[in-house]
Design brief:
Helix content is 62%, strand content 6%. The protein is mainly alpha-helical and 160 residues long. It has one domain. It has a two-stranded antiparallel ribbon with strand order 1-2. Helix 1 (7-29) packs antiparallel against helix 3 (65-83). The N and C termini lie far apart (52 Å).
Length: 160
């Protein structure tokens, strides 16, 4: 494991973390009076079942517990993996392991093993987001790197 990121990696990580925290901020703002339009906006990417949401001031947040924690995990993971890098093999293992735990949680609840454990939803969501950040940060850095040696130049066909 290496423990230092380049300036470009840190810059991409901070921007990615800010983008990932945006839905969390909007979800918190939606729990204020007059925030119904923010909850309506978030319906496209979260089921927003009030039983599965955190509540603030008597109103549910605009994201369920799992989605909220996935975004928090992504933000934390981008910053963590900018400073502590792991191999691509371990990043994939982390992501599959976290996805397996999340699917196991959904399956166990569907079969009635337990009902709506918010702490478990939060834990599996955060783990999934955190582990996924190892892969997304790597891809974003490669995509946004100005001197990417693997980047192919666009060849435009010019008739002669």
């Amino acid at each position: 494991m290496q423990t230092r990121g380049t300036t470009n990696e840190w810059r991409v990580a901070w921007w990615a973390a800010a983008v990932c925290l945006l839905p969390c901020g909007l979800a918190l703002a939606s729990a204020r009076p007059g925030g119904e339009w923010l909850r309506a906006f978030a319906q496209g990417f979260c089921h927003q079942d009030p039983d599965r949401c955190y509540w603030l001031g008597g109103l549910p947040l605009g994201l369920c517990v799992r989605c909220f924690c996935i975004y928090l995990g992504l933000a934390a993971g981008h910053l963590w993996f900018a400073g502590v890098r792991c191999s691509e093999r371990w990043a994939i293992r982390l992501a599959f392991g976290a996805a397996f735990l999340m699917v196991a949680d959904v399956t166990a609840e569907a079969f009635g093993a337990y009902h709506n454990l918010k702490w478990l939803r939060a834990t599996t969501g955060f783990g999934f987001g955190f582990s996924g950040a190892a892969l997304t940060l790597r891809g974003l850095v490669q995509l946004l790197s100005p001197s990417n040696p693997q980047q192919k130049k666009l060849v435009v066909y010019e008739p002669q």
